[in-house]
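Take just one protein record:
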Amino acid sequence: MTLLQKLACLGLLLGFIPTAVAHDFWLAPGQYYSDEPAAVSVQFKVGHEEDAANWNLSWDKIVALRTYSEGGIADMAASIIPRSEFMPGVAKTAKLKSGTHLIGFESYHSFSSLEAEKFNSYAEEEGLAEIIAYREKKGLTTTPGTELFSRKAKTMIQVGDALSDIATTPIGHTLEIVPLQHPAAIEPGDTLPVQVLFKGEPLANALIDATPLAGADHKEQALTTDNEGKATFRLTGKGPVKLNVIWGVALRNNQQADYESYFSSFTFTVR
């Protein structure tokens, strides 16, 4: 059995999901807004809104789970309750003071292997321009695609009316969606400019989509970032929104996989 075959079998045993069917990943807080200081629970979701499921939250998949606010950074690891037959997998913040707060999550790598046609379709659908160009240049479009992928996610919680700059400040994820205007200041019909950063630098030509979550009446949108990594969405309704972007790069001299991909999301709500 080859190394790749062994890794694929290991992925099935450990519950790793091929990237093409891994779907979106996002953080779903119990509430996006609170009038008074409060502790807020958060769940971990995977899929698409019509078939969203609880992610298989477990300790061995977590790199970091933190709360970011003007007062600093707080580790949430001690609050994590892994998914079980009785619990969906949740975590809870400490009591959040007035202001804006971000929760940021990062996962470890998982492994995926797909046949050439499926991998090419996945790369095209998700707008993985760098991987597509690399495979075409190297004549690899008829070969399987193997990759390591990880998840990065943020959600925003607003307590009271005082808006904090943390909402528009990068928190250092490898792939990150950064709003350029405070989402809590957005009303239905307004625009929200965002910037996608990859390793701290603006990422051009990345496909980023906006999807309404449960109870929202926004229109779905998909945009490609410009040369400064920016895109502007018009939020037509009320309720929670998920912004999602995926990016991948070729790996050199890596025995595990040919590519590395990152899934990143940002959730918030429009009041």
About this structure: The chain has a mean pLDDT of 90. The helical segments are 3-14, 19-22, 116-125, 129-137.
